Amino acid sequence: MGTPLNTISGAGLGLKRSFLNDVLQQPPAEIGFYEVAPENWMTIGGKHGQRFKAMTEQFPFVAHGLSLSVGSTDPLDEAFIRALKGFIAEYGISLYSEHLSYCSHQGHLYDLMPIPFTEEAVRHAASRIRRVQELLEQRIAIENISYYAAPGQEMSEIEFFNAVVAEADCLILLDINNIYVNSVNHQYDAEAFMRAIPGERIAYGHMAGHFVQAPDFLVDTHGAPVIDPVWDLLSKAYQHHGVFPTLLERDFNLPPLAELVAEVATIGQLQQQAVQARHKQVA
Fold first, then answer.
1. Residue 243: how many other CB atoms lie within 10 Å
2. What is the pLDDT of residue 7?
3. Three-state SS at 136
4. Residue 54 maps to which CATH number?
5. Owning domain of residue 126
6. Model confidence at 112, in pLDDT bands (50, 70, 90)?
7. What pLDDT score was predicted for residue 70?
8. What is the C-alpha separation between 149 and 188, in angstroms, rounded?
9. What is the H or E stretch that residue 259 is in?
10. What is d(CA 266, CA 273) in angstroms, rounded to the nearest whole number?
11. pLDDT confidence bin for 110, thresholds 50/70/90
């Protein structure tokens, strides 16, 4: 099952329509690849559609899904998956990723809900991921999500996540901010969680900001700058797993493009530092 991982590298940015024209006219050198939510772009037409096509002809893209609902008991939307396959082919998108969660139960819930950490849920989610990969004819990357409750928990988050990934034989989208948010909310060691991830499966990573509701309660919003402890965790991830492509997510409270590019540049700097440190160790 093909997986063209070598088509993305460096630091990336989630593409928004609000700055589509700006990055097309004057592409920031700091951005090596872009990400889109396919649900928001699959039916795009007109000028936005033309500009998006032009972008995909110039830069590597990944697609990050919002509605697949791999943990749901509702039937998989195979018509959507087949349309997604066409979208990926049409625009030359190298990789598709989704969340290890569910967002539907007899209709859309409009939020990413946590799957119970149980052996039964491992088998259920993994079988659905395998079916998606069969339909797409390529491996997909599954993201560790932020969550605020763990009903019916029989195993730890990392045990559950790794079990699903292994049984589905899929790749990983490693969200560094989600690890940090969960480590504060559920009181575990963020670095230990990061180290327990099977690094050979990491396709790319996510960086984002969050909202501090209380010192012991963080909310994953993608609406704020990345904070220093999350940058530090990314640096440690590069040291432990090696450098992997990493993308900045910003979905709300969008600042000027220059501020986003500055954060993307920080990702690039951490990647360069990790490479240089590894060369010194080898020398």
1. 18
2. 81
3. helix
4. 3.20.20.150
5. 5-282
6. low
7. 86
8. 14
9. helix 257-282
10. 10
11. very low
Total of domains in the chain: 1
**Sign of the dihedral through C-alpha 7, 42, 107, 128:** negative
Query: How far, rounded to the nearest angstrom, does the alpha carbon of residue 123 sit from its chain's CA centroid?
Result: 22
User: Pick from 122, 129, 205: which is nearest to 169 by CA?
Assistant: 129
Q: For residue 241, what are its two tokens?
A: 């797993």
CA distance 131 to 271: 34
Q: Per-residue confidence at 118, pLDDT binned at 50, 70, 90?
A: very high
Q: Are 17 and 48 in contact (CB under 8 A)?
A: yes
End-to-end CA distance of the chain: 37
Residue 90 structure tokens: 């049409």
- The helix/strand/coil state of 97 is strand
User: Model's pTM, two decimal places?
Assistant: 0.94
**What six digits make up the tokens of 199?**
């690094």
Q: Which long-range contacts (CB under 8 A, 24 or more apart) does 49-54 make?
A: 51/20, 51/21, 51/24, 52/20, 52/91, 53/91, 54/24
SS3 251: coil
Among residues 229, 233, 243, 236, the alpha carbon closest in space to that of 276 is found at 243
Task: Read off the pLDDT of residues 152-175 as tens digits, 9 standing for 90 and up.
Answer: 889 999 999 999 999 999 999 999
Q: Which of 34, 80, 79, 30 shows the shortest CA–CA distance to 57?
A: 34
At 184, which amino acid appears? V
